[in-house]
Amino acid sequence: MTSVSSCYAAPLLVLLLLAALPVLRMQFLEPVDDCANPTQFLDFDAIPGTRVSQQRGVREHGKDFVIQWTVGRVSAPQLSGPTEFGVVRSFDNQYVQLSPALALAAPLDVNGYVPTVHPVRAGDLELPIHVIRKQVEGRERVVSYLFVYDGEPVRDPLRAQLASALPQLVSGTLPLTVLSTSVVVSVIGAETAQRVQERWLISAWDHYRAACHE
Fold first, then answer.
1. Which helix (H) or strand (E) holds 50?
2. Domain range spanning residue 59?
3. Could you tell me which of 77, 92, 116, 122 has the fewest CB atoms within 10 Å of its CB?
4. Which helix (DSSP H) or strand (DSSP E) does residue 95 occupy?
């Protein structure tokens, strides 16, 4: 059995505790919805060109910890295929982080795909938009998504959770939000599709900020 030097024991213990905090928070701490007006946030029809087709709204925190699940379509006549969107807000942060595209009407298991992250300017912020491209029978599926945690867009949800874990031991655990969009287009139309998705995610972020920031 390998022993751990006393000079490394304390830092190692701290790292182990930090790694366990997201699980401990979900299991034992009171969930706190950090969105100031969650009902307003549900109104995605307020975003121009956006139509909700299915939605489960804010409710009592069930065992799955999902507090919002919304899917719908985005009008994008310049693209050859229908553009869909999905939104999930959940206190099961790990589920949302590992399955950001499962909210879509045509879910995509992102396991095995490494997204590229494109910083996109939105007012005074840069949104870290994750993009996955998948070949589908000679065409290309483009999936773009944005994580929001503690009221801010984040590149790495796990790192953001660890950074806020200690304060939340007092204040309560927060949900992770993912805004996602997907379309299947010709290979030459993939770049245009990505630009369309970026514009919609900027609009969705503005919608989030208007509803959820006090």
1. strand 50-56
2. 6-212
3. 77
4. helix 93-98
Q: Which two tokens stand for residue 167?
A: 């304060």
Residues 200/180, Cβ–Cβ less than 8 Å: no
Q: Is this structure's pTM higher than 0.85?
A: no
In the Cβ-directed half-sphere of 173, how many Cα atoms lie within 13 Å? 23
Domain count, the chain: 1
Amino acid at 201: L
CA distance 182 to 168: 33
- C-alpha 214/C-alpha 203 separation (Å) is 18
Look at residue 1 and tell me if it is in a domain. Answer: no
Three-class HEC string of 103-169: CCCCCCCCCCCCCEEEEEEECCEEEEEEEEEEEECCEEEEEEEEEEECCEEECCHHHHHHHHHHHHH
Q: Give the DSSP H or E segment for 193.
A: helix 190-212
CA distance 71 to 101: 11
Q: Which two tokens stand for residue 169?
A: 């031991």
- Residue type (1 letter), 123: G
- State pLDDT tens for residues 6-38: 565 655 655 555 555 555 555 556 778 889 999
